[in-house]
Amino acid sequence: MNHILKKIDEYYTEKLLAHGPTPAGVDWNGEEGQNLRFTQLLKIIPQKEPFSLTDLGCGYAQLYPFLITNGYADFSYTGIDISKEMIQQSEHLYNNAENCQFLVGSACIEPTDYCVASGLFNVKLDNSVEHWESFIIETLENMDRFSKKGFSCNFLTSYSDKHLMKDYLYYADPSFYFDYCKKNLSRHVALLHDYGLYEFTLLVRK
User: Fold this and answer.
1) Max Cα separation, the chain?
2) Closest of 155, 153, 191 to residue 170, by C-alpha
3) Tens-digit pLDDT profile for residues 170-185
């Protein structure tokens, strides 16, 4: 698994160095799509309640100000990313915030109410599909283990237009991951595949 993580680290660090703390710096097309993804992921959280959250693969932690802007007032945020440069950028941006912390890593290490992962499973590079899917399953199980109330994540969809698909990206079968989560992690699983992007979001509630 280390060789997979090393390639991911190098890929996203290069993006950040090239584009800075922008959607392109975490390999998204723009802010509108990024915010739409955040909206889907955060459907795992009842807005009125206090909560703790782990953002796995946080990038430059743009989810943190999105939470505040959208009325999530009483929460603590832990951002985890494999890229040391991403974490340094996050610490620089939010060094005065008392309710957040940032860690270099590839997995959740302490329990929080919720865990989210945006775009974490999209860029497989030249890794084999078999190895990449093993990485995904291992990560889903980690998120499940360390989330007390539930977790959410998104994937590029296998229903994307074939002529637009790229070899270095991973396009997931929605029914496979819904079925895996339903049979192995929780009976309370929602699949969102209706928000206008070539992707889907899974919500897994405890």
Assistant:
1) 46
2) 155
3) 999 999 999 999 999 9
